[in-house]
Amino acid sequence: METQWRRERQELYSKLERSAENGLNHDAVLASRELFTFDALGQAIPKEFTFQHSNDAVTVVCAEIPRSVAEQWGEITREVLQELTEFSGGDSGETTQTQCATNIADVYVSKLDIMHVTLFYTSHPDDLASRDANKHKSERLSREIGLVRELATQFEPIRMTPVKVVLAASGSILLLLECLPNDEFGDERRVHAEPTAKNVGENAEFSVDLLRQTAQQTLPFVSAKSPHAIIHSTLARVMSPTAFGEAALSRVRETCHRISQEFASSKNGSPNTNVFVRMALLRGTKQQSNKMSSSECTEQEAQWRQQRSDLYEELYESGKNALNRESVRATREHFTPGVTLESKPYVFPSENDAVALICAPIPSEMAKRCHDIGTQLTELLRREPESNNAVSCVTRQELMHVTLFHTSHPGDLAPDAKLRVPEDITQLKAMCKHFAPFCMAPVRVLMASSGAIIMIFKCMPAAKEDGITYDDEVVNKHAEFSVDHVRHVAKENFSYAPKTDTRVIIHSTLGRVLSPDISEEDLDRLRAKCEEITAELVADPQPALFDKLWYVQETHHLSPQGPKTDIPLLGGVQLA
According to the lineage, what is the superkingdom (predicted)? Predict the structure, then answer.
């Protein structure tokens, strides 16, 4: 089978390389064009899917391309498309540059932030997974996510290298890849490889083939229209069969061939250390076009991204473990028992003590969704049998927020914090003039081992329609790291930075489990519901724009009750 996989891939790659020798396939290009809309400048924008039934979805499993590698591939894209930005200057024969190579009418360029290698579809646009009248779409998605997680545990990280760049007859400019055998990387990888993984030893060369084969054997549905022999990433698409003449297309083919030869020369020399494709499987639900920023991140921002990714995975895994009942018992001391559990007011050592919270209030529609989810989850927990007292609490809808930082923390009070309030508010207002509003989307709902039921978020890359000018005065030009930059600037500028504070996580506490005696049966039911709701969030994240912060003089434990000052984010916003 391995020999057959290798031969089929080599034959397919050669065929693709030759496919556009006689020009583009008119019908294939037009068929692809139907999947896009075009703005006034002729820029292609992917259309959103329109499904006949609310339970339909397109779901794809792909391999994430590390940012550093995606940037290299972006340079390849620019080099190839440069050949389409020139035209002959009449009788003089001079060549004139007309436009940016990544901003060409009738050409769609893949965004670096979502560059990927497609592995397989569990529901394809032309081969949708069948619906079950008795099950909601979220149940299927939740089950598949669990199965894909299990699938990923059976494979070592996959190393790939580009072997060809081709202009296919369909108009797609493809980067064709192959998996590298272990001996390309010496003994180190063999030493650390998990012996039970399917792609160790000689099988490393066939990692993608084995993964696709295993998926077909273990998942309830893998579309027959999924890729088979090909391992590729689409760099760009020519969206018109007539927009570019044969001379331009010939130059594109020649450039592709030259780059492919460079790949071959590099392969015959020392292996490229930048070809690693991280085998964190990305399971996407394609329901809307992705609008991503192409701005490059700094080393610090990349570190923030990795730290958050690691923390979120750690939180998810810890949520599967037993509830820390002693932690729950300690937290319950801050609440008044009864039919509802209400947080107690702080009792400070001195009259000038205070807790000061800076947070982002969640916009009303998202806040309602958060409150509904918190209510839905806590209602799964049975009340105390004799007293009928509550065993959990839900954050009030009007208090839903994302914690950013404290200038005085309940676990690390700033000296004379109450006297610092006017100064803090003035400082925060000045700071917010240099921060643009930012968009956030939910990632997951989970119960932490502490009993906190939290929704974790990510900041989204900036979108043009936000109407924000990201000039040099805006600190969070790389909008994906907005919360990180807020915390970083605060730490540098405020007079007191509590040692006990939120650093990496972006979250909202929807509610809390507050009984140390709650049954494992109830907890398992809650965890299962969290998985189901997470699948719904993946399918329909409903991101929201956060355009202001709250300065809260917090009066109660674990709750943003108390006087609040609204402070708008004004960076890049054109005021009337």
Answer: Eukaryota
